[in-house]
UniProtKB/TrEMBL annotation:
Domain of life: Bacteria
MF annotations from Gene Ontology: metallopeptidase activity
Xref: InterPro entries: Metalloprtase-TldD/E_C (IPR045569), PmbA (IPR047657), TldD/PmbA_sf (IPR036059)
Organism: Oceanotoga teriensis
Sequence ranges assigned to domain Metalloprotease TldD/E C-terminal in this UniProt record: 219-412
Record protein name field: PmbA protein
Listed GO CC annotations: cytosol
Length: 423
């Protein structure tokens, strides 16, 4: 298919182009409790072609479209003719294509489907001590993925990686019957990772099934954990991107402090990690063919580097880092015990915690939380929190302890001191 496309592009005198190839071979397994309900194999290829036309006045027109693997030469030519015609309706500021980057990378183990399925199944369905719960259902997706980038300027890059995704539902029968859903994604199987995660979720489900009602709590620090911490720091990751800065979604500038500082709060140290082990997003290049390098983005609260793809980096006059997915935030100065010495609310499960990456507003409804009044802990459900990142950044504290959540390594817990709590 690749050679066929090259020949057709030459025949149509298309001089500037980029081809992204995505091939996936996966097995999908669906379980009801411990019994397999269905399984299937999914194999597909996706070819995304982008054609460019340079215009007068430092302008550029480009369009992207998919080529189906089953299309014959005549069908591809007809589609290409139509897209070449569409170029006259598009005009952007000029940016150059990446040139001459080459490499063949294997970023992870290409997994044996049956072997990895048995390991995952045995971990999900181990004999847990608590008899009041069961795994209601689970879905296990195991994928081997090949990605390629080729362009008319000599870029030829390819990579292999594995992706493992697990979606499961726990049912717990306590004072009330509750269900908790969880999603896990990683690249390399590590014994104990899945079962430890499920044990934590069982404890949360148990607490939720015995929750008490709380009328009102005010002026209490709020602790969030794991995926919600990742979502919180996504605000800073986006604000440091060339895309956001060029579009005026962010006013960050090199050498400026991106957060207000105080003696009480922790300072952010944010790094771009090119090849993060066990991340399903690990790759050595982005979709334009930019080769990744590790890069310090924020150091002690100060912006050191802007990250971005080739287009928006060119607009800002900086070297592109590539469109990155793997980030690390260093831990703070307090450990998990110190963060919980005085009264607090710790949110264990949100219905959906979200941060607006432009305004910094955040919020979510509480499915399970623990309130510590200085002497005892009470689990409760209901209510919501809201706040703004900028109104918390001079005082927030991160845990020293860090963990990895797929493409993010960062503090396990984050303590916020300026949060509205509603019941």
């Amino acid at each position: 298919m690749i050679e066929k496309l090259k020949n057709i592009l030459a025949k149509k005198n298309v001089e500037n182009w980029k081809l992204n190839v995505y091939k996936e071979d996966s097995r999908e397994f669906f379980f009801l409790e411990k019994n397999m309900d269905m399984n299937r194999r999914v194999v597909f290829e996706e070819y995304t072609l982008t054609i460019y036309k340079y215009l007068e006045g430092k302008k550029l027109s480009f369009v992207s479209f998919n080529i189906e693997p089953t299309m014959n030469e005549k069908e591809i030519e007809e589609l290409l003719n139509n897209e070449i015609n569409n170029l006259k309706y598009v005009e952007n500021d000029y940016f150059p294509l990446i040139e001459n980057n080459k490499g063949n990378f294997n970023n992870g183990k290409i997994v044996d489907f049956n072997d990895i399925l048995k390991k995952i199944y045995d971990e999900i369905y181990i004999d847990y001590e608590d008899i009041n719960f069961f795994i209601n259902s689970s879905e296990i997706f195991i994928k081997n993925v090949e990605e390629r980038v080729i362009n008319s300027k000599g870029v030829e890059l390819s990579s292999l990686n594995s992706i493992i995704q697990i979606d499961y539902v726990i049912t717990y029968k306590g004072d009330e019957e509750v269900e908790i859903n969880d999603f896990i994604e990683f690249s390399d199987y590590k014994e104990g990772f899945i079962s430890n995660r499920i044990k934590d979720k069982i404890l949360n489900a148990k607490s939720r099934s015995h929750c008490k009602n709380i009328v009102s709590i005010n002026n209490v620090p709020v602790i969030i954990n794991e995926n919600d911490v990742k979502e919180f720091f996504e605000y800073y990751i986006q604000k440091c991107s060339a895309d956001y800065i060029y579009k005026d979604y962010s006013n960050y500038k090199i050498n400026d402090f991106v957060q207000k500082t105080s003696e009480k709060g922790d300072l952010i140290n944010l790094n771009l990690i090119s090849d993060m082990k066990n991340s399903t997003f690990s790759n050595n290049f982005d979709e334009d063919g930019v080769l990744f390098e590790d890069k310090n983005i924020i150091n002690e609260g100060k912006l050191i580097n802007i990250w971005g793809d080739s287009r928006y980096s060119y607009y800002l006059g900086i070297e592109p880092t590539g469109f990155a997915y793997n980030f690390e935030v260093k831990g703070g100065k307090y450990n998990n015990i110190d963060l919980r010495k005085s009264n607090y609310i710790e949110i264990m499960e949100f219905s959906d915690f979200q941060v607006d990456y432009i305004t910094g507003d955040f919020g979510g409804e509480i499915r399970l939380a623990r309130y510590f009044d200085g002497s005892s802990i009470l689990a409760f459900s209901g209510g919501s929190i809201s706040g703004n990142v900028k109104e918390n950044e001079s005082t927030f504290n991160f845990s020293k302890e860090v963990n990895q959540l797929n493409n993010f390594i960062g503090p396990k817990s984050l303590k916020l001191f300026n949060v509205n709590i509603s019941f």
